[in-house]
Write a structure and sequence with these properties.
The chain has 209 residues and is an all-beta fold. It contains no helices and 20 strands. The two termini are 29 Å apart.
Length: 209
Amino acid sequence: SNIVLGSSSRYGQNLRFGNDVIGGDLTTTSNTYESRLFLAMSDSNGTWTHLDEIKVGNHWSGSNSFTTERDWAAMVVGDNGTVWVGFHWENSLEISGLTTRSSGSGFIVASWSPTNGWMSADSIGFQSSYYVDVDIAFSNGDVWFSGICSGTTYMHGSSYSGNGNWNICIAKRDSTNSWDNIYRSSPYNQYYTSLEAMTGHPNGGVVFW
């Protein structure tokens, strides 16, 4: 099977994958920044078999001299076929069957399967400032999600203390399905704290640069 994660602006209406269509339900006026993430799956013959989405009111964007582009979403597929999507959202959020929010902002790691659709949506208390890119990785049953944080950081209902400086922060969800730690880099001046990409290591953990 093949899985594609993509995004569209408010003008990306009625996206078709095989017999399935999403779209037509975002506001297209110039004063809105509504967007959607779409997840499409095909079989080994290239036939589209599944299509799902997440709708957000807005998300971060932009590039700067310290990073080429701040991606607002990333995807990884686990060994058992579960798809993990990490993303940033603002103003509103809709994940079918899980949550609908009309205000706020933050980072979410959501899981999806072709059998059950969206299964979980966990809040990660990273901050949207500065230059650490959103990325997600899978390694030996664990899920890893990157961001930036300082001081006490909240993750899925628990707090994790740390120094008050800016750190590259990587949240870990272990193979028993529990977020259990936030690993932090050495503290840096915020303008020099940057992460471009992250991937799982075959022996466990992640590699990032």
